[in-house]
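Before the break, one more example. Copy the sequence into your notebook; we will annotate it together after we see the structure.
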Amino acid sequence: MSSYALGLSHSGLRNFLVQRVTAVILACYCIFIFSFFFGRVGLGYTEWVNLFGATWFKLFSLLAFLSLGLHAWIGIWVVTTDYLKVFHIRLMAQLGALLLLVICTLWAIQILWGQ
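Here is what the structure looks like once it is written out:
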């Protein structure tokens, strides 16, 4: 019953694979950001503007933000399903977390693509 609380059925194998793929995407993004930050001497505003102005980097960032949202949602869903036994409390926690994740993802998209 809890797997259908938000109308989203969850497959254990699918969740496992999505968690692993999104973790790899996030790791690649973090490695790139850290290597860009620490690999440049005298990194300034112009370099950051040029990096975030590139379409390929916007797409890479968008993929990372979407991966973060999916990764977080699966983690939240698993934790709330395991530890919140009262249906109404679990439903409210999942809806609140989902709303927050959607808002943050939309905000990230607006920051990346908006001017």
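The chain has one domain: 8-113. Residues 80 and 93 are 7 Å apart (CA to CA). Try to locate both features in your own notes.
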